[in-house]
Amino acid sequence: MLEGESRESSENETVQPSRPAPIALGGTLASKAKFLNAALETLSPADRMARLRRELRGRIVFTLGFGIEGQVLFHWICERDIDIDVVTLDTGRLFPETYVLWAETERRYGRKIRAVYPDHVALERLVSKRGIDGFYASKQAREACCDVRKTRPLDRALAGASAWIAGLRADQSLERRDAGLVSVDASRKTIKVNPLFDWSRDAVMAVVAANKIPINPLHAKGFASIGCAPCTRAIQPGEPERNGRWWWENSGSRECGLHLPRRPARAPSKPDEQPAAFAGCG
Q1: pTM confidence score
Q2: CA neighbor of 243 nearest in space, from 183, 178, 173
Q3: 25-34 per-position pLDDT tens digit
Q4: d(CA 214, CA 209)
Q5: Which stretches of 157-241 are assigned E, i.e. beta strand?
Q6: Chain segment 148-159, per-residue pLDDT in tens
Q7: Is 256 a catalytic residue?
Q8: Strand 182-185 and strand 190-193: pairing?
Q9: Chain centroid to CA 142
Q10: 145, 146, 231, 256: which is the annotated catalytic residue?
């Protein structure tokens, strides 16, 4: 009770909450995603991440791939000291320039970036069966490699997380236009948020320039989207950003599986057969 306030007026007053209670206390993933989409839609990307942290209890994971979008999101996370678990998936086949950028980024922001690696048993089995560069042989072989090196490690990184933050933009490819700002990754039982979903590449690069954010020098050499070294090439002017990924495949999709719906693995028909890969990689 405030000084000078009568008990009668205090008892008769109905106090209105300033904002909704944290939605992590209840509700389905779908209802949480709907609430968050409305709450975050009009905010800046940095404010979207900060609001997400306020609204959700539990661990929030940001997967940093060291692309320009990821570098900008990481800059804001560090600048605002947002309590978000930052991880990177080290496939073992990244460009040397990516590892140099990784170290430079840690020095710049004074924060270590947690690495998640492929399971060594699964990786040894894959290389033994397919060869070190067996992914060039067929799309199925490439998807199997992506599954072991990227998708399964992501599953471990997101285990038990309340939300997953990614750097997807709608204008990166046709496949990503439907990703949305907030969605539900039902197979991983988590909410997925793309804070830069409605941003353009030029807008992201403007933030990079204004804040002198370190980025991969390969971008200046025509590499718009940078993944594993054997599977990434520079693109020509006017090509879609994702065209440099898995360029030898005829399929129009340039997704590895991290951002695609997961399918249950087919059970092996033979004791020594590997399970079929999950939804296509890219």
Answers
A1: 0.81
A2: 173
A3: 458 999 999 9
A4: 9
A5: 163-165, 182-185, 190-193
A6: 999 999 999 999
A7: yes
A8: antiparallel
A9: 20
A10: 256
